[in-house]
Amino acid sequence: EHKRIIEMLAKLSTSSCEDNRVAAQSVLSSVLREFPDSFTLVVDDILRLLSDAQTSHAQLKGALYMLINGKRQALLLQQDWEIAAKV
């Protein structure tokens, strides 16, 4: 159940609606602080958005924010070499 919630938050974090995107990013950041390894559940979906030519500007903005938001929860700052190799 937690996995599904985290995946839904990641999807909302790349929403075309800015209010939804910002709110979901905030909640997802809080979840990642509490459950630091949970980032592995969403990284593939985020990377998929970055490589898809059909990704909207809003989705791209959300995906990039989650990767490099400048906070400790930024996915690029997670110390997981397998994930780092994917990025």
From TrEMBL:
<dbReference type="GO" id="GO:0070628">
    <property type="term" value="F:proteasome binding"/>
</dbReference>
<protein>
    <submittedName>
        <fullName>Uncharacterized protein</fullName>
    </submittedName>
</protein>
<dbReference type="GO" id="GO:0005634">
    <property type="term" value="C:nucleus"/>
</dbReference>
<dbReference type="GO" id="GO:0005829">
    <property type="term" value="C:cytosol"/>
</dbReference>
<dbReference type="GO" id="GO:0016504">
    <property type="term" value="F:peptidase activator activity"/>
</dbReference>
<dbReference type="InterPro" id="IPR035309">
    <property type="entry name" value="PSME4"/>
</dbReference>
<dbReference type="GO" id="GO:0010499">
    <property type="term" value="P:proteasomal ubiquitin-independent protein catabolic process"/>
</dbReference>
